[in-house]
Amino acid sequence: MTADFIWRMEAVLELYAEPYDPKRPVVCFDERPYQMVADVHAPLPAAPGRARREDYAYERRGVCNLYMVFEPLRRRRWVRVTARRTAEDFAWQMKWLVDEVYPEADVVRVVLDNLNCHTPAALYRVFPAAEARRLVRRLEFVYTPKHASWLNMAEIEFSVLSRQCLGQRLSDIGCVRRAVEAWACARDASGCGVDWRFGVWDAREKLR
Question: Which of 54, 55, 59, 173 is deepest in the core (most CB within 10 A)?
Fold first, then answer.
């Protein structure tokens, strides 16, 4: 385990241990591709004494991208669906986060992995320099160590999303958006969160 791994890990864990500060919220950010599929034959609806029947055959309808934003201390999440996963898409997600989700915050602290487009430079490639600088000053990126994306709580939310929502056949981006938005709203309303118990001292003891 390298020194770089350790300091990045402890930076994330200390951030998770901080109390809630509305002026400096902490969010976890991650992304994942999703294969859209459609039924070849229409399913047979459920009937008394008989479950819904679905043919095994399906048709691939391309891949979309899911962005997960999870605020652990307020137990809120947003899932954004895009056609692609590019530096431009990432930049627009950061602008949405700053201007629409947290317009009153001084800085939004974002836990994310080391993907090559997850940098302030992505914003400068997409927006004019003055706008990019305005956004970058409102963002603080906290990177998980390489090969330790499990430290990002957005991965836990993605795991729940996969089990509870994405196992069904969703044939286009519109269907995916409706499904994940309904899932996020229901999970927010129920107050579900992540019971994170792994701290700096646990890491030093278990990973030494």
Answer: 173
